[in-house]
Amino acid sequence: MSEVSNGKVIYEGGSGEIEEKKSRFIANIAPVTTEEDAVAYINAMKKKYWDARHNCSAFIIGRNQELTRCSDDGEPSGTAGRPMLDVLLREGIRDVVVVVTRYFGGTLLGTGGLVRAYQGAVQEGLKNCTIIEKRPGKRLKISTDYTGLGKIQYLLAEQGVTIMDTEYAEGVELDAAVPLEQCLELEKKLTDSTSGKAKLMWEETIEFADLNGTIRVF
Fold first, then answer.
1. Less packed terminus of the chain by CB within 10 Å, N or C?
2. Over the Cα atoms of the chain, what is R_g?
3. Which residues form the UPF0029 domain (predicted)?
4. Which H or E run contains 74?
5. pLDDT tens by residue, 67-85
C-alpha cells in the first residue's frame, strides 16, 4: 500500500476580522487544490476590497505542503505574507489560501505590530472555518450472514472504524473506510472473529475524513 500523509484541510472556508489601532484586518480563507485556484481567489478578494490599502496573501498547495507562496502586497517585507503563511504551516493545514485585507487606520504599527496583526487576523479567520483531517485509507466491503453481523459491528466499533453504508438482503453487506495503518490487523481480526465466514474485499485507496460522525470520501 502506498504511503499517503494525513493532513488538515479547510472543508468550509470562513472569515474573521480584528482591529489594531483603528486599522481593520479582514481575513478570508478558502480551500483550493491548485495554484491557479489560489491566484484566482486572491484576485477576487483584491477586486472585492479594491479600496483597501493592502490585500496580503498566502497559500499552501499539496499533500505534503510542497507549494507555498506569500505576498506582503506593499507592506514592509516580511511583516504580512510570511507571518500569515507561518500560521497555516504551524497548524498543519494544506490546500488553503488566505487573504488578509487591511484598511489603514492612520497609525503606523511597526514591524512587530504588523506581524501580530496579520497573524491574529488569520487565526481569527480559522476559528470560523470548518477544518477536517483527511486520512489515507482503503474501502472495505464486508459480506456476512445475519448471525455474524453483530460480531462484525462490535469489532469495527472497537477499532474505531466507521461503517459508511449497510445493505440488507439475503445477507448483509457493509461498506467501511479503514485507515491504512489498520488494514492488515483489521483483516486478521475480522477473519478470526468470524472463523473466515465473512467475505472481505478491499477496494481502492482513498482519502477520507470524519465530519461530525459522517465519513466523507475524497
1. C
2. 23
3. 143-197
4. none
5. 999 999 999 999 999 999 9
